[in-house]
Here is the input.
Amino acid sequence: MSDRTDIGSPPDDAVTHEHHPRVAVAVLCAAGIVVALMQTIIVPLIPQLPDLLHADAPNASWALTITLLVGAVSTPIGGRLGDMYGKRLALLGSMAAVSIGSVVCALSTTLVPFLVGRGLQGLGFGTIALGISVMRDIVPARHLSSSVGTMSASLGVGGALGLPFSAAIAEHLSWHALFWVCAVAGIAGAVGIALTVPDSPTRTGGRFDVVGAVGLAAMLTFLLLPLSKGSAWGWSNPLTLGFFGGFVVVAACWCVAELRRRAPLIDLRVMVHRPVLLTNVASIATGFAFYSMQLIPIQVLMAPTTSPNGLGLGMLAASLVLAPSGLVMFVLSHLSGHITGRFGPRVSLALGGVVIGLGYVVFIVALSGPWEMGIGLMIAVGCLIGAGLGIAYSAMPALIMASVRVEQTGEANGVNALMRVVGTSTSAAVVGMILTSSVIPVVLPDGRPGEVPTDTAYLWAAGISLGACALAAITALAIPRSRRDFIEQPI
Here is the structure.
């Protein structure tokens, strides 16, 4: 039997014609790229943040951490609010938060207001999940898979373009100008959504689960904070262990409370449904492999040529080498739509894991074998991993939407996006720990002493990421087949 899947789009004649679906899809994808930029634009500024904000380095590093925490918490909450009160309204709120946060950052000269701005930017992270949910409401069935794939790939495009974009503006203008540009982009995204995206035809209404939201925020804080700060605090530090212990206690209490509520923030009974559960497990593994790609190659590219396999590039040049991976991810998302239409999203997800794994295999062979590590090979590795991510990330929403009711689309996609955040946070902790635990001394280009990871550290990090790819592929194939048919054509 064919494994094709109907991901629950309304029939063509049920889609409103006042707004052109192609224009709405383009606007939603552009908004997704803007939000994805928020995750990487600050990377070139990290070494300068203590001086720019008159703070010490450990406190300045919160500029990254707070955005991750707020984004992780707000994504499933935003999805639930979209289901209750309208996805278009939730999208406008997300873009408004990005714009206001960017303005606050642009005006900041000290750490505290800058952290407030970065937290507001994190409130926009649910845009991609909400955009995918909107597409289920407005896009005809024959175009839905391609549209969802393009929206999913906007994460990779924004992530890949964020580094060179921010490095160029910060280098040639100023770091304040970088956030003014983000503010303008956020406003443009909100205007585009207001003009092209129709209001949600289905809403659940009801009362918002405040207790569930507070519990979720506490649970994710207890989990993600030690994952992001564990290397600085020490993994055996009582503070780190206390946070992990707190996560276990809060998670248990939160689950009991949510199961007893009539209208919970997250319906755990749906989340443990086998197709949804396995898709989320595969999402964690894929998110792990995705973020490893952000951590490993940049170190090789920027390591001085005096180190083994170091290519000695600056931040802007290294970012440009990695940029094609995001573009490949975007292009391959359309191929994922065709694969999903023909064979089903579980096959697309498994294939994506395999292709990502091939990228890590090439990297491992180049590092330990006869091939010479060079810019061309790093571009090839990045493109392979980007292609796999484009295929895999496009399949996840299709699997989720095939398994939940229309009125639960925002909530379920929000949780799925959260699982990817858990994967990326785990990757940051594990891969970061590996790369910093085995280093060799080098002389940096400016003559200062420094340290870079050893080849052994790179091999272990890439090997674990390859294992995550295998887990994603195996889990995807374990997802039960759907009996419903899905007709897919290019948009």
Remarks:
- The chain is about 75% helix and 0% strand.
- The two ends are 26 Å apart (CA to CA).
- The first strand starts at residue 439 and ends at 443.
